[in-house]
Amino acid sequence: MSDIDNMKEVCILGLGVIGTTYAYALKEGGVAVEHLIRESKRASAPKTLDVKLLDGRYNNKGEEKSGSYQVVQAAPDSRYEFIIISVASGKLEAAVETLRNNDIRGTLILFCNLWDDREKIEAIVGDYPYVMAFPTAGGHLENGILDCVLFDHIMLESKEKAGIENYDLLISYLDKADIKTEIPYDMAEWIKIHMAVNAGVTSTAARGGKIDNPRQLALDLMSDSKALALAVRTIRETLKVVEGTGVDLKLYKDEISAYKIPSGIAGVAMKHLFASNELTRRIMTLHNDISDIMYGCECVYSEGKRQGLDLPLFYGNMDKIRAAE
């Protein structure tokens, strides 16, 4: 039989929080999902997960839900319409190599922080078709319990720029899961903006020099309008780094408009938002992978230094964090 005859629907690389959260939503919508798990972990991988979901697809403040998820493992030498890769920053190359070693083929959906330019990304993925995207989800997966948050959309490269043959099929799968799409001017540039904003927020939250408890830092930041105002001013600095790479920020007015208003007003508004919207508040506390958080900060820091930019707030905070590591 041909590869087309054997084509399956969706494969998730690994059993991480982001991939499994979307796997749960897709499977609930009737899409068949399997997980490629490393050979050394296949025997010990859970067969069923208990799911606690703050679901933002139908209510912008989120709805608490619960359920269960059956983990179906992928077999080597399999063909899929789509393969979702959500790995920590800097690990994309190893992820693609895992797919090659297991002879798993399909269109890659890259759910990753990627500071690299497209040429490097294309060199990593090689002959795999791919589309750049970005998740709006988060959570923890421990002791067989997936405790997660899911927003109503993902960020997705446009059909014209993605150039994959099964783009419409991807949209149909997302529709089944009640997940909408937001399509920026350019996905690679949007991710750089996202990383720069996160770097501004993170460096402000950890301005005392310690980053060992990201959740508490996020909670403290969200309750302090003055600190949030400082974060806005720091984000203005980090966005200069993105602009210095050749990105036209005028094409991303919706993404950065909140950082253009007076910082004091922005800080008060952000504090109110976090206090009144549990969905937005909880997603801020869920990214606790310090190495991944610092990867984004270091990308922005190194690029700013390379450009010779004067970023006193950002550099000052980052130098304290780096000295404490």
How would you portray this structure in words?
By secondary structure, the protein is of the alpha/beta class. The protein has two domains: 8-183, Rossmann fold (3-Layer(aba) Sandwich), CATH 3.40.50; 188-324, N-(1-d-carboxylethyl)-l-norvaline Dehydrogenase, domain 2 (Orthogonal Bundle). The chain contains 13 helices and eleven strands. It has a seven-stranded mixed beta sheet, sandwiched between helices. It has a four-stranded mixed beta sheet with strand order 4-3-9-8, with helices on both faces.
Set down the secondary structure blueprint.
Elements lengths: L7 E6 L3 H12 L4 E4 L11 E8 L7 E8 L8 E7 L6 H10 L3 E6 L7 H8 L4 E5 L2 E6 L2 E6 L2 E4 L2 H4 L4 H10 L3 E3 L4 H19 L8 H9 L2 H20 L8 H4 L6 H14 L1 H8 L4 H18 L4 H13 L1
Parallel strand pairs: 1-2, 1-5, 3-9, 5-6, 6-7, 10-11
Antiparallel strand pairs: 3-4, 7-10, 8-9
Helix pairs in contact: 6-8, 6-12, 6-13, 8-10, 8-12
Give short descriptive properties of this protein.
alpha/beta; globular; 325 residues; seven-stranded mixed β-sheet; 19% strand; 11 strands; Rossmann fold; N-(1-d-carboxylethyl)-l-norvaline Dehydrogenase, domain 2
**What would you call the shape?**
globular
Query: What is the first-to-last residue Cα distance?
Result: 55 Å
CATH homolog superfamily of the largest domain? NAD(P)-binding Rossmann-like Domain
* Count of individual helical segments: 13
- The CATH architecture term of the largest domain is 3-Layer(aba) Sandwich
Number of domains: 2
**Structural class of the secondary structure composition?**
alpha/beta
Helical content (DSSP H or I, runs of 4+):
40-55%
Q: Give the CATH class of the largest domain.
A: Alpha Beta
Count of distinct strands: 11
Q: What is the fold named in CATH at topology level of the largest domain? A: Rossmann fold
